[in-house]
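In this supplementary section we document a worked example of the pipeline. Step one takes a protein sequence of length 121 as its only input; no multiple sequence alignment statistics are reported here. Step two produces a three-dimensional model, which step three serialises into structure tokens for compact storage. The input and output of this example are shown verbatim.
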Amino acid sequence: QVQLVESGGGLVQPGGSLRLSCAASGSIFSINAMGWYRQEPGKQRELVASITSSGSTNYADSVKGRFTISRDNAKKTVYLQMNNLKPEDTAVYYCNMNIRKILRNMYDDYWGQGTQVTVSS
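The serialised model returned by step three reads:
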């Protein structure tokens, strides 16, 4: 089994910062890309940021210059540093990892349980 456990969400005032973490555990052989998505009620889940196994990053236009994605391969963890948060960043944030399990010759997508981020004064 593979599990992704997120932490770090919460309530923050506009202009504030939060750092999300997502750690993978289980029978993992290797991890390819990692990413963060978010979803507001009644809307589609959207990509916020992603990072490849070699460290190349990609960001949604709405968060460029404010959010930073990083990863620690030894800890099987992905982070999202969110600065200068805005009310429109309010959503449930989900981590995603493309993982190859031990004794399996292909990669599958796994998701975290989601963590609420609320930006409000």
